[in-house]
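so im writing up the methods section and need the DNA-3-methyladenine glycosylase II record in one place, dumping it here so i stop losing it
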Amino acid sequence: MPARTWVPPGPFDLHRTLGVLQRGPGDPAFAVRGGELWRACRTPEGAGTLRLAARPAAGEIEAEAWGPGADWLLERLPDLLGEHDDPARLTARHRIVHEARRRHPGVRLARTGLVLESLIPSILEQKVTSDEAYRAWRLLLQRHGEPAPGPWERMRVMPDPRAWALIPSWEWHRAGVDAKRSSAILRAVRAARRMEEAARMDLADATRRLTAIPGIGPWTAAETLQRALGAPDAITVGDLHLPKIIGYALTGRRGTTDEQMLALLAPYEGQRHRAARLILLSGITPPRRAPRFPVGDIARL
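--- predicted struct ---
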């Protein structure tokens, strides 16, 4: 059970920095227990589980890891926790961005260095509610993942590419995943090596690499590369809610389109994803006028 510590270069919020890696409540690969964060993932060296705990009195983060991927996880701990991320590169152009950064100075952009880990759940989130996507991720990992190394038996590591490719059609259906999304995942895992190479590319090249796969568009690529690369400019386009939230927070107006959102975020070129994260942290959203979108369940069809 190798271990190490990491000293943040400045204010650091462990939970808000890594919380974006959790795919909903009950995520089998991510858990919070007693203030500690636990993450189970598939590294190039094999399955690994990482435990992280903030030690404010010592000014450090304590990390332990288990499994064949333990050393890989610990070697890349600084990248994961945003040591090379530079929040100061964003210059606040709006009061709401300034206030959000002042209130949340410890938020950094995590860089996992793992593409499929973020790509597959992002594909599952295409064109469905978050609850539907989280349920699918949970069921697929519980049925086809493997037990995570280490002391927490309920955690699961996602399947390797071959295991994803062997999931039968009725299991996708049982998890509520339609053929369009399952086919995109199968195409991605068949090109797993080329997908993972994107973790070592710049944002533009990585986006081209991912979107070369049919069924992976700009929305899915951005959602993936925000996590795999910690890319500060990977703004999500094509989202149902984000433009409306950004537009309302910055202008007070409803119905903002993607094009209008990009125009509003133009002063943050190079840091648009970071700016959007800060705006979301402000908690300012347009009041709801319509009932929540109903949750579908194709498994019952």
